[in-house]
Amino acid sequence: MALVTTKDMFAKAIKSDYAVGAFNVNNMEIIQGIVDAAVEENAPLILQVSAGARKYAKPVYLMKLVEAAIEDTGLDIALHLDHGEDFEICKKCVDDGFTSVMIDGSRLPLKENIELTKRVVDYAHSKGVVVEAELGRLAGVEDNVSVDERSATFTDPEEAAEFVEKTGVDSLAIAIGTSHGAYKFKGDPYLDFERLEKIQELIPDTPLVLHGASTVLPEFVERCNNYGGKIAGAQGVPEEMLRKATKYNICKINIDTDLRLAMTAEVRRYLAENPSEFDPRKYLGPAREAIKAMVQHKIKNVLNASGKR
Fold it and tell me: Quick check: is 227 in a domain?
């Protein structure tokens, strides 16, 4: 077993009503919890690394942890760069062995986004690496990605078709109402399914990606708050909306905030109930199990990816 690209994963998913989970990783316990869940569910898996994760853990440590996960579990795993901001970081990750990279030129005018994406696509494809790009902008904050709601714009379907044709990108992250972070909606949750359906019609063979798609599970928010946290008003994307999205070529759903909440909730609970404990293994172990249980829930009940490996 080895690191693989997302090409075969998406080729299967686009023909069926399921999506591959793309989970952000920062340390050993998070990786172990995710891969153990994928093994039990026999599910395809993408582990993704953001700029913040690279800064926190150092790329070489993350790469070795992913390699260890493959050796330990026998899983085929796609290793993906999340939100690469320029050509140089994408090139570095391709050269370091990543099998998938995202170039995020969504901040740029369409013409410049196309030019930047095409440059990354040409280099990555020459090395056998696939590329995700983004068109449209999501509100919220994730690592160094910050876009306030006023400048968040939904993806234009006609521009999406032009973008894919001119760049040759392998998959496209679109903006239809999701957002980064734990505070995705101030009112009723809303995803623009009419827009999503139009995008699917215009680029039917292109796998689509949802960023900012954590559901911000209430049980973890409540547990965090019950044990000293202050996460009032957090709200994510309802699971039924994500399940519906998989019927419109959404082949990859990104999950980060829910991992953070699951881990933090369990750490807070354990330390509050065991105030004399100071062995990190005692609280990181249960946190790892909380991540595993949450990821299994996502794979089975949201992504519909159990048994799809």
Answer: yes
Residues 17, 72, 76, 82: which is the catalytic one?
82
Tokens of 161: 């078709």
Residue 290 included in any domain: yes
Q: Does 229 map to a domain?
A: yes
Query: Which DSSP symbol is given to 277?
Result: -
Domain hosting 190: range is 7-301
Mention every residue, 6+ apart, whose C-beta is less than 8 A from residue 77: 3, 4, 35, 45, 46, 47, 66, 69, 70
pTM for this structure? 0.92
CA distance 137 to 247: 22
d(CA 169, CA 114): 10
CATH number at residue 52: 3.20.20.70
Within a 10 A sphere around the Cβ of 233, how many other Cβ atoms? 9
HSE-up (13 A, CA, CB side) for residue 228: 9
The phi, psi pair for 80, rounded to 5°, reads -125, 135
Question: Is 307 part of a structural domain of the chain?
Answer: no
Q: Tell me the per-residue pLDDT of 137-179, one tens digit each, with 9 for 90 and over.
A: 765 544 554 444 544 578 999 999 999 999 999 999 999 988 7
DSSP 8-state secondary structure symbol assigned to residue 246: G
Q: Is residue 82 annotated as part of the catalytic site, yes or no?
A: yes
- Token duo for residue 241: 């909306």
Domain count, the chain: 1
Q: Give dist(CA 22, CA 46) in Å, integer.
A: 5
